[in-house]
Amino acid sequence: MQAIEYFEVECPEARGGDNYRQIANDVLLDHNMLRVVHKIHVYIDPKVPIFVAVGILKKVTTVIKVGDIANVNPQEGKFTLAISDETYLAPMLKVFWDKFGKDHVDQPDRFTVILSGISIEARELEEMVITDPSAVLYKDLVYSLRCICPEGFRVRSENYGAEKFSFVASEDLLTDASLALVKEKFALMGETP
Known about the structure:
Blueprint: E1 6-10, H1 14-30, E2 37-45, E3 50-57, E4 64-65, H2 66-69, E5 70-75, E6 78-83, H3 89-100, E7 105-109, E8 112-116, H4 122-126, E9 129-131, H5 133-148, E10 155-160, E11 164-170, H6 176-188
Parallel strand pairs: 1-2
Antiparallel strand pairs: 2-3, 3-11, 4-9, 5-6, 6-8, 7-8, 10-11
């Protein structure tokens, strides 16, 4: 797995900074965020109190389609799908049940799915979207940042886009000065917000 290109934790207290570096590292690893985060800068000052995390996201994998995980074999009145990657089998079955109904979906074993009595072209079936990894990306990222953020920092400002994110939290109201830290921390990474 590719490492994060830029990973910095900034804190006025050296020991606190070291501890938060370890916390951030562990949370990012535990939540599998290394595949998503390209750069991250965390700033924490418990005396203010303020927590700021800004970052750049890696390009997210494209959508997963039926043809990506299964060979579609059209037969008389049915399709037999030979599953080559079980990772997305459960979401694929859910998509089939929602679209065709459970009566038309059979799974005799973990590597085979049979669709019967449906009207669809083989190519259209291969192009059906099973899942969009970016749909859960932001939810996972927000959850990770909330785990890194000190407990009690309930006042938050969160901004997420396709390429960048910022997360500011405090025990107190967020001021213009605390929100201005976002721009400053992006600049330290050589980026603009």
